[in-house]
């Protein structure tokens, strides 16, 4: 088992990474809560697929330490990360008479983490949040750093808040039940960290992609821990994305546009981000920032994991530009676009939506 700590003063919290951690989650949750406030209840928010796999184990562990637990289930999929399902969650939490001391446990992938996190940030003006990510994407990225949000018809994650969890429990054993497509999509965020921050990790991914796809337990746990360490470093430097944390948006500007244009039904988040990263490398190369060799290495690594690297042929640059303009990362008509200088080093380029959208022509 590995343990990291996100050091943010009074908002600091541990990230516990290991195998078979769900059965012991109850004591960890109590330990993460202020002893003086005496939580009596808790709520577990999960989706229809994860429910049948892990919910009972988490409920049993929480009940064993004396918490009265309410479970709330929503359908699986990004298209349900919206106001309608958030309202249902609020209704269920209010019916359960949740208190400000009651933790909300997000059991699932990034969609659940975002929805449950935003509910925790806003119900009763804020209750404790426990992240229990069960997908690779959520384990290496979405569960850490306090970003919570829901989608709007105009764009992804346009309604949200920063709300740091009290604890992140990352049980890598849950990845064994992850559908192949979701596992592959999660590696997009792993590649992201390697490209923007860690050439050594990039080399490991290049040489070990086939082994990772077979879910070698020790190697996968090490890679997850490395990505978490990199995310922690960035969050500690810039908790609320005033500047440096925007580096984590590599690939997301075009990726979010693709998700919005397909109404979150055609691509998983990681797949859209993979296309966005490939486009970002092409744009960086055209601006004379990255070498053709490094661009090729990134695109080939994405392909080695089975990730898409090209925008669907029926997408037009003008369509993508409109979707990018609605993105929350725009300011003053410009996007702080994450471009690549070399593997492990990036820079921000202030670009218009139309300038970014030209990258899809290739």
Query: For this structure, what is the CATH homologous superfamily of the largest domain?
Result: Dehydroquinate synthase-like - alpha domain
Question: In which order are the strands of the major sheet placed?
Answer: 1-2-9-6-5-3-4
Strand tally: 12
**Secondary-structure element sequence?**
EEHEHEHEHEHEEEHHHHHHHEEEH
State the CATH topology of the largest domain: Dehydroquinate synthase-like, alpha domain
Poorly predicted spans: none
The helix fraction, in percent, is: 40-55%
Short description:
By secondary structure, this protein is α/β, with parallel strands linked by helices.
List keywords for this structure.
362 residues, Rossmann fold, 2 domains, 46% helix, alpha/beta
Write the layout of secondary structure elements.
Layout: E1 2-6, E2 13-18, H1 25-32, E3 41-47, H2 48-64, E4 68-74, H3 83-95, E5 104-108, H4 110-122, E6 129-133, H5 136-142, E7 147-152, E8 155-162, E9 167-171, H6 180-197, H7 199-213, H8 217-237, H9 252-261, H10 269-286, H11 292-304, H12 317-325, E10 330-331, E11 334-342, E12 345-351, H13 353-357
Parallel strand pairs: 2-9, 3-4, 3-5, 5-6, 6-9
Antiparallel strand pairs: 1-2, 7-8, 10-11, 11-12
Helix pairs in contact: 1-2, 3-4, 5-6, 5-8, 6-7, 6-8, 6-10, 9-10, 9-12, 10-11
């Amino acid at each position: 088992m590995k343990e990291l700590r996100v050091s943010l003063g009074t908002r600091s919290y541990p990230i516990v990474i290991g195998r078979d951690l769900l059965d012991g989650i109850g004591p960890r949750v109590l330990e993460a809560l202020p002893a003086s406030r005496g939580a009596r209840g808790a709520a577990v928010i999960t989706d229809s697929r994860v429910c049948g796999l892990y919910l009972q184990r988490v409920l049993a562990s929480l009940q064993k330490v004396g918490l009265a637990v309410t479970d709330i289930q929503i359908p699986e999929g990004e298209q349900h990360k919206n106001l309608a399902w958030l309202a249902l969650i609020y209704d269920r939490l209010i019916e359960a008479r949740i208190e400000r001391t009651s933790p909300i446990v997000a059991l699932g992938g990034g969609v659940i983490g975002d929805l449950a996190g935003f509910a925790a940030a806003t119900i009763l003006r804020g209750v404790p949040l426990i992240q229990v990510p069960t997908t690779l994407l959520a384990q290496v990225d979405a569960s850490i750093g306090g970003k919570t949000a829901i989608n709007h018809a105009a764009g992804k994650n346009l309604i949200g808040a920063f709300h740091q969890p009290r604890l992140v429990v990352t049980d890598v054993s849950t990845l064994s039940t992850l559908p192949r497509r979701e596992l592959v999509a999660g590696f997009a965020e792993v590649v992201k960290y390697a490209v923007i921050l860690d050439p050594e990790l990039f080399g490991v991914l290049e040489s070990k992609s086939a082994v990772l796809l077979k879910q070698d337990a020790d190697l996968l746990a090490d890679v997850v821990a490395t990505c978490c360490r990199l995310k922690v470093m960035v969050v500690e430097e810039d908790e609320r994305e005033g500047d440096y944390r925007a580096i984590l948006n590599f690939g997301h500007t075009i990726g979010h546009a693709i998700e919005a244009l397909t109404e979150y039904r055609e691509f998983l988040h990681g797949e859209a981000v993979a296309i966005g990263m490939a486009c970002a490398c092409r744009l960086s190369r055209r601006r004379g920032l990255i070498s053709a060799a490094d661009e090729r290495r990134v695109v080939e690594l994405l392909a080695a994991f089975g990730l898409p690297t090209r925008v669907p042929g029926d997408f037009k640059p003008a369509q993508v530009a409109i979707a990018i303009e609605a993105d929350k990362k725009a300011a003053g008509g410009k996007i702080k676009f994450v471009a690549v200088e070399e593997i492990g080093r990036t820079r921000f380029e202030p670009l218009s939506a139309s300038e970014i959208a030209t990258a899809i022509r290739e």
